[in-house]
Specification:
Number of helices: 9
Distance between the termini: 40 Å
Largest sheet: 6 strands, antiparallel, barrel
Shape: globular
Helix content: 25-40%
Number of strands: 8
Radius of gyration: 19 Å
Strand order of the largest sheet: 2-3-4-5-7-8
Length: 238
Amino acid sequence: MTSSSGDEDRVAPGDPVTVSTRVIDAGTTIMQRRLPVKQMNCHVSTFAIYGGDMSRQIETHHYVHRVNDEFLQCAVYASDRSDAPLIGIEYVISDRLYENLPRDEQKLWHSHAYEVKSGSWAYPRLPEAVATPELKNIAKTYGKFWCTWQIDRGDKLPVGAPELMMSPQGVEQGVLRPELVKSRDEKYNIWTEELKHQRAEIAEPEWINPMADYWKQHGKCFVMDIVTVDMNRNEQFP
């Protein structure tokens, strides 16, 4: 079983940044607007499991842009360091939006209730009392997380097809490895078991759609492959 705690994310090959490149970066920082990036105002530390191989679990760091009260979009990094690899993207939607998705689309999403209630979903350096209102909202949401860089298997660059990721669950292959959680907790001086205790009063969703967490309900997963196809130059999309 493979796990990642963030130590193996110093992986990208390439020459060191030169002085001239730093000058260019400094100029663009001053002269250009970076409005989408500036909207990422929240850091979430949690974990994810590869849907196609649930023996592989990784620590993830989501930087969250709240588009509105029912839709979040997250850039997912391997750590919270300034040089951390960008390993994927997750979209988070309310239960209302999720229920309006086609059934085949619903299969690609995971629930967040257990992730919140178990203490896996944490806000580093943010007091739990401050985080509680947001946790109550997140517990009722669903997420779709595509991993584009599998650094836990030693990939030096983002290669291959994206992998659909699952959220931690309290059963079978969804149970997190204790050493993975311990490494995260020590890094941020938190205790996941204590967070679980503190969140006992957060209400469970009245119903979690059985199309979510598809592996748990149906024993099947979804994987992507890259194949060569003929170009339909004259076909209207879709």
